[in-house]
Request: fold
Amino acid sequence: GEDVEQSLFLSVREGDSSVINCTYTDSSSTYLYWYKQEPGAGLQLLTYIFSNMDMKQDQRLTVLLNKKDKHLSLRIADTQTGDSAIYFCAGGSQGNLIFGKGTKLSVKP
Amino acid sequence: DAGITQSPRHKVTETGTPVTLRCHQTENHRYMYWYRQDPGHGLRLIHYSYGVKDTDKGEVSDGYSVSRSKTEDFLLTLESATSSQTSVYFCAILRPAGTSGVVDTQYFGPGTRLTVL
Reply:
């Protein structure tokens, strides 16, 4: 079945760019998603990318997809303290998702 | 806001007692999901439902049962709670492509923190 791997921690300084990486095994995933979880809250959808796209940009967020290497990344430009959270990548199709373990992003002032 | 509520939001119970968690949605979506979140494991699917009285097992279904007698409610039951079931439980619904976006997307409730002593 699908397996999704992420590094567990990332620390950056305010104003820098953050890059969160994810690898997945199932090339049949139709969509790939990024979710954000703030402390004590549920997961919020940040963005998604179709599996036939290479890149998607949405304001400060850039998603890159390398299908050959099954590698997904989320870049947050001009990272702010409010971006501190756990970020999950997820892949799947027909509504069933497999989530990575999450990357905890810490932003230092 | 996807109109998902979970109750209770916090619960402490003792080993061996039955526990039922409720997920309620206001949007009449067909698919609903129960996940648990644990440190080092991320989110893992327990059970999901694809319609009234239609449910299926997920990755970690042992020790859990579910019921869906109405579209809007999806119940998760721990028949005899164990300490290994201490976790944060999230419910999610699936908004199909076309209802609010171009892709099928899961939206999550606020979670229930369950402690089994």
Observations:
- The first strand of chain B starts at residue 4 and ends at 7.
- Chain B has a mean pLDDT of 93.
- Chain B touches chain A at residues 31, 35, 40-45, 48, 90, 92, 94, 96, 103-111 (CB under 8 Å).
